[in-house]
From TrEMBL:
It comes from Thraustotheca clavata. Its main location: endoplasmic reticulum. GO terms for molecular function: 3-dehydrosphinganine reductase activity. Pfam families: adh_short. Keywords: Endoplasmic reticulum, Lipid metabolism, Membrane, NADP, Oxidoreductase, Sphingolipid metabolism, Transmembrane, Transmembrane helix. Its EC number is 1.1.1.102. This is 3-dehydrosphinganine reductase.
Amino acid sequence: MGDTTYVVLFIVFAAPFAFYVLAALFIALWPKKKLHGSYEGKHVLVTGGSQGLGRAIAFQLVAAGANVTILSRSAEKLKIVVDEAQKSATPGRGQIAYQAVDTRDFGAMQYAVAAAESMFGPIDILFPVVGKARTAKLEQLSIEDHKQAMEINYFGTLNTVYAVLPTMRERKQGSIVFITSGAAMTSYIGYAAYSPSKYAVRGLADCLRNELEYSGVTVHIAYPGQMDTPGFAEEQLTKPAECKAIEADDTMHQPEAVAKVILRDLQNGKYNMYCGDLGISILGVLGAGMSPRTNWALDILLFPIGILAGWIVRSTWSSKVRQGTSEPDMTAYQQV
């Protein structure tokens, strides 16, 4: 090869690569405008606040000086969370209250939101965290199981948004942080009821992000991975053996760590929040669709790696299903 050939090859391959590397570094290092400079004094509504991720978000917000209202169906569990949060809160900074309500009941949600706003003022930030997963193979799930998944995970979220959004629109300010799951980007055996409901929440978030773009209300979506929560423990009762095998090497995140990442990403104005999970971050590179990307240049660099990783992981999933023969204990499932 002549010198000219080497120059041409460099221009064709090396120069674009160098451009994207430099662009990725520039985007990563460029100072970001803070969406929420501080949570102090903000009124934050958290559904599913009695345990797991919702509880962790509420605790950290109270510690940051926010006024937090937590919602759940269990008044007993909510009261315990409120008592614990008040004991650890700094006097004069951050308050917490609760409303026992079923998010599937829109009328009750309207009443709960009105009561919350009468105590702490208009809601500045909404975290619809409430969710439930019933895991089993499709034919071991009833149609009612699928309906319940949609009622809790999708319509519970939708009812909350309908109850809170009008005031945000009127004030021309506010943030909604939808909580989905890695199961809103991909799915596999065991999540036939849960995953579609989370895909639905993702579709709602993508739609509202565009619809509210110039309203002063910002929309965000978080994709937590496996978390050490009571809900995850409940899933294990009926989860197919193949599903457990697929997830055996997944990182188990603590809800407190996930909450910290979500609150930081919200301050930085990120739309897609991957919650510190590498696998879900790669899924985001491959499956963000038309949604805003935090670092488009880095995504371009990682896309080929993601394609290869996806092929390897998918092959592993197929192998686990091929090897699987055991059935979950449906007696335990009926008791959940």
